[in-house]
Amino acid sequence: MSNPSLLILPGDGIGPEVMAEVRRIIDWFGARRGIAFDVSEDLVGGCAYDKHGTPLHDDTMARAQEVDAVLLGAVGGPKYDSLDFSVKPERGLLRLRKEMDLYANLRPAQCFDALADFSSLKRDVVAGLDIMIVRELTSGIYFGEPRGIIREGNERVGINTQRYTESEIARVARSAFELARKRSNRVCSMEKANVMESGVLWREVVTEVHQAEYADVELSHMYADAGAMQLTRWPKQFDVIVTDNLFGDLLSDLAAMLTGSLGMLPSASLGAPMANGRPKALYEPVHGSAPDIAGKALANPIACILSFAMALRYSFDLGEEAARVERAVEKVLADGVRTADLMGPEGGTPVSTSAMGDAILAALDASL
Ligand code: IPM
Ligand code: MG
């Protein structure tokens, strides 16, 4: 049997820097665990635009459809701000999500004990936090039609459309319920059913799926604005949160920050099962391309490394090896190894991106 295949798309800004550390971890698995991947690498985002005039070349898109998993760094940067919307770096990422039909975006927000004091919230509010936001990723206002900027009389009008079909809601609800069963068995669904028809339908469909298939899971509903408030007030009340594309975008940034640093959080975007039974999948850190620190060896590679750990778990059935990576990360944090984003009020000397990689590799070695 051939090795499992990985397509690596480092992207822009700090993407290539953090991905370089992931490549070292991948090599480590080949050398030390006998787990080898067929790795190919390609462009996405601004760098793809620079080379091909498009943020995602058709050949790259085709390759992404073939591989067992895609690993993406980050896209975007100020250099591309004035580009036409249709070729902005972000369109490359959105095309991957849409054409691979990666409808369930898993964004864990986990607080590492060593970092509990880095949160903007009090330690007891965040210590031990472990929640999972399941964000719908291929529909809603990100993709709804009509959209655009049109002229109406003597002024311009900006239009986006929030649109959800029953089946789109039902399938992401199922993903959330399935995950909850493997965790603390609780799902909180967030929308704005008080204001939006799409929210009314969301609530109805989630309730129907729950009653028909997942009555053993505890389900609650919350308006998304109240959800944001509750996430900052007492986040540990949540286990799995399921929500739409835009609310999920906002709430996952909020949840990420509770844990102390955006540089820590991975994500998995999963679609329907392929012929081999595994879901189509793309893994990426929640953070962006951070152009302000790009090229300075300051970036924290942990979110990207933990994204690879999620790939081990969700695409390759290597949950034990995923946990090995997660424990290695926990270990270096407990040892006080810190990149610049993890400098608390008391300061200290930050390590470089590759020194963080070194430390994690050493912890992996020690785990054998
Ligand atoms: C995210 C990002 C993206 C989004 C951008 C880069 C298109 O913010 O993954 O959360 O809005 O979905
Ligand atoms: Mg976002």
Class from secondary-structure proportions: alpha/beta
Distance between the termini: 26 Å
The CATH homologous superfamily of the largest domain is termed: Isopropylmalate Dehydrogenase
Number of domains: 2
Architecture (CATH level 2) name of the largest domain: 3-Layer(aba) Sandwich
Question: Quick one: CATH class of the largest domain?
Answer: Alpha Beta
Per DSSP, the total helix count is 12
The description of the largest β-sheet is: 10 strands, mixed
Low-confidence stretches: none
In which range does the helix fraction lie? 40-55%
Which percent range describes the beta-strand content?
Answer: 15-25%
Q: Estimate the mean pLDDT confidence.
A: 95
What is the spatial order of strands in the main beta sheet?
Answer: 2-1-3-12-11-4-5-10-8-9
CATH topology of the largest domain: Isopropylmalate Dehydrogenase
According to DSSP, the number of beta strands is 12
Shape: globular
* Ligands, ions, cofactors: 3-isopropylmalic acid, magnesium ion
Give the ordered list of helices and strands. EHEHHEHEHEEEHEHEHEHEEHHH
Rg from Cα: 20 Å
